Amino acid sequence: MLDTPVLIVGGGPVGLTASILLSQQGVRSLLVERHPGTAILPKARGINARSMEMYRQIGVEQAIRDAGLPIERTGFIVWTESLSGREIERRVPGRMAPANQAVTPVRNCLRAQDDLEPVLRRFAEVQAPAELRFNTEMIAVQQDADGVTATLADRISGAETEIRAQYLIAADGAQSRVRRMVATRMIGEEGVYDSVNILFNADLLQWVQDRPAALYFVEQPDLRATFLTINAHDRWSFLIHSIKQYGYVPDDFTPERCIALIRQGVGKPDLPVQILGVSAWEASAIVADRYRDRRLFLAGDAAHEMPPTGGFGLNTGVQDVHNLAWKLATVLKGEAAASLLDTYHPERQPLGLTITKNSLENSLSMGRTARQESARLPRSEFLNEQGLIFGASYESSAVIPDGSPPPAVDDPVTQYVPTARPGSRAPHVWLEHRGERVSTIDLFGGRFVLLTGAGGQKWREAADRLASPSRPELVVHSIGSNCEFADADAVWHAAYGVEADGAVLVRPDGYVGWRSRTQVDTPDDVLRAALDGILGHG
Questions:
Q1: Confidence (pLDDT) at 260
Q2: Alpha-carbon distance 297 to 345, whole Å?
Q3: Over residues 377-391, mean pLDDT
Q4: Ordered alpha helix ranges (H), 269-394
Q5: Lowest CB count within 10 Å: 86, 208, 267, 496, which one?
Q6: Which of these, 408, 448, 424, lies nearest to 347 by C-alpha position?
Q7: Angle at the Cα of 55 (from 129 to 363), degrees rounded to 5?
Q8: Distance from the first to the final alpha carbon of the chain
Q9: What is the CA radius of gyration of the chain?
Q10: Is pLDDT above 90 for 373?
Q11: Residue 239: which H helix or E strand, with range?
Q12: How far is 313 from 311, CA to CA, in rounded Å?
C-alpha cells in the first residue's frame, strides 16, 4: 500500500496551491485529479490582491502576471445596451481606488483559470517532495483514528490502488465525495440562478480598446449577459444570465444560437464568431456547516459555493489552504499539537459564510433571479469589498488576544482599516533594507516571524533562547533607526500598534498571532507562552 502524509483530492487552483504550500514546508503530498490535465475553460479569472500577496510570498506571483493582462487593460466595469451601442454607465471598481491600493504592495491580476492552472501545476511539479497524478480518481475513502485510507482508480487502465494518508484535503469542487462525509448540512440556498458560459473567438478590439474593462455587461430586454475579458482582443467569454427567466434551457445553446446571441450582444449581425466551448451551470450560495471531520478537511468549492458576482470563489479557496497548510505541516513535523488543526474551521468557515452571503447579495442586486425589462445596475458594494479582501479577523486558539478592540468601521464589507490586532492580516508598510524598498508583506510566508522595534533587543534574545529542534523556525526582524530594516516613513509603530520596545508575532500565513505593545519583565516566558499557545501546547 502506498502512503503519504497528505492526500490532496482535486487538481484545480486550490489543490495545486495546497501542494506548493506543503512542499515549501517540507511536507510530502500526493495530489490526484480525475481529469487528464488542467482546466480547458476559463472559469474563474480574477485573482485579488490578498491572493496575489500569498503567491508573491511563495514565489509564483510573477509567473502568474506574465501571462495575465496588465491591470491598465482591465481598469473599468462597463454597462451597455450592446458592445457597439449606447453605453449606460462606466465605473472604476472601488478596489482600484488609490486609497485601497495603498494597503498592499501588489495589485490584483486578471488571468483565466485555464491559463493559471498550468502555471501552478508547473510550480507544484518541480517542488520536492510533491507528487501529482492526473487521470486518477479517488473512488472510496474512509478514516480511522490513525489516518485515512483511499482507493484510487487510474481512469485509463482502470487499475485500482489503495493509499494510506495521515490527512486528506478535499479540493475537488462542488461535487466533492468527501463533502458528503464531512458536512452534515449545507447552509444557504442552492440553485439561485442558472447561466450559460460561451467561450469564443472574435475580434472585438474596436469596441473595447478605448475603455478597457474586465466586464462588459449587456442590458437588453431579452438578453442579460456579460462579455468577460480574457485577452482583451479576440478571446472572450460570453456569460448569459438567468436563462430560465428568458425562456431558455441548456440544450437551446447550439453553436448557431450562441453565435446569434454573441452578435446580438455586440450589436453586429455579421460579426465573424468561432465557438470554442459551451457550459451550463447553476449558481448556489451554500457553505458547509463543518470544514473538518477528524482527518478530512474541506477547501474551496468543496467547502463553499458562491455566485461569481465579486470574484471570491477561487480566492476564498486558495486562502483556505493558505490557512491550513502551515498547520498541517507543523503538526506532521511534531512542532505543534494536533489541536492546532481544530482552528481551521473557526477561522475559515465564518469568513466563508460572510463572503458567500455578500456574493449572493451582489447577484440579487443585479436582478439575477427574475426577468428584467430595463437595465439593472448592482449595489455600490460590488467590486468594492475591501473589507472582505483584507479585513478578516480570526478568532481561535491559534490567536492570542491582547484585549484591543477591532478597528471601528461603518461598513465591514467595503472598509478596511489596517491593524496588527491579533487575528488580523499583518499590515503592509514600506521599509528600507540595504537601499532597497521592501514591504513587510515580503517578510512573511511559511515561517513564524517576530517583528520588534529598535528597543526590542530583549525580545530578540528571548527568541534566540527559544529556538529548538522541536519548535518551528522563528525569524526575528528589527525595524527602526540603526536596525536591519529602516522605517523611512516613520509609520511602522503606529501601523502595528507597538512602541519601540514592543513586539508582534506573525504566523506563517501572514496573520498576527500575538502582540505586546511594550517590553515586559519576563520576555522569555511571555514569548514562549504565546508561541506555545498558538501551537496548541499551552
A1: 97
A2: 9
A3: 93
A4: 313-332, 344-365, 386-390
A5: 86
A6: 424
A7: 120
A8: 37
A9: 24
A10: no
A11: strand 235-241
A12: 6
Look at residue 481 in the predicted model and tell me its pLDDT. Answer: 87
**What is the C-alpha to C-alpha distance for residues 196 and 332, in angstroms, rounded to an integer?**
43
Average of pLDDT values for 298-307?
A: 98
- Give the three cell numbers for residue 461: 534574545
Assess whether pLDDT exceeds 90 at residue 70.
no
Q: How far is residue 65's CA from residue 110's CA, in Å, rounded to a whole number?
A: 8
CB atoms within 10 A of CB 490: 10
Check residue 73 and give its pLDDT. 78
Report whether pLDDT(463) > 80.
Answer: yes
Gap between the Cα atoms of 529 and 525, Å rounded: 6
Q: What are the pLDDT digits (tens) for 315-340?
A: 999 999 999 999 999 999 999 999 99
Instruction: Return the sign of the alpha-carbon dihedral for residues 247, 253, 256, 262.
Output: positive
Mark out the alpha helices in 246-312 (DSSP H runs): 255-266
Count of residues in the chain? 538
Task: Show the cell assigned to 156.
Answer: 485509463
**Whole-number percent of the chain with pLDDT over 90:** 91
- Which amino acid would we find at residue 357? K
Contacts of residue 164, defined as CB under 8 A and 6 or more positions apart, other chains included, come to: 1, 2, 3, 4, 147, 148, 149
Model confidence at 192: pLDDT above 80: yes
Q: Decide if 403 contacts 228 (C-beta within 8 A).
A: no
3-state secondary structure 24-40: HCCCCEEEEECCCCCCC
Which residue spans within 266-396 are E strands per DSSP? 274-288, 292-293, 296-298, 304-305
Are 186 and 354 spatial neighbours (Cβ–Cβ below 8 Å)? no
Buried b (16+ CB within 10 A) or exposed e, 453-463: bebbebbeebb
Integer Cα distance of 143 and 474 in angstroms: 33
Q: In terms of pTM, does the model score above 0.85?
A: yes
264's grid cell: 446580438
Q: CA–CA separation, 24 vs 26, rounded Å?
A: 5
Q: What is the mean pLDDT of residues 352-361?
A: 97
pLDDT, position 219: 95
Q: How far apart are CA 321 and CA 14, in angstroms?
A: 7
CB-neighbour burial class of residue 134 (10 A; exposed 0-12, middle 13-18, buried 19+): middle
Map residue 162 onto helix, strand or coil.
strand
Nearest-5° angle of CA 73, CA 48, CA 534? 160
* Rounded Cα distance, 507 and 445, in Å: 8
Which residues touch 50 (CB under 8 Å, ≥6 apart)?
Answer: 104, 315, 319, 389, 390, 425
Q: What is the dihedral of CA 382, 383, 387, 393, to 10 degrees?
A: 100
Give the pLDDT mean for 204-209.
95
CB distance 389 to 48 below 8 Å: yes
From CA 274, how far away is CA 295, in angstroms rounded? 47
Residue 156, burial from CB neighbour count under 10 angstroms (0-12, 13-18, 19+) = exposed
Does the structure show a pLDDT above 90 at 68? no
Q: Which of 91, 93, 70 is nearest to 386 (CA)?
A: 93
Q: Which residues are registered as beta bridge partners of 1?
A: none
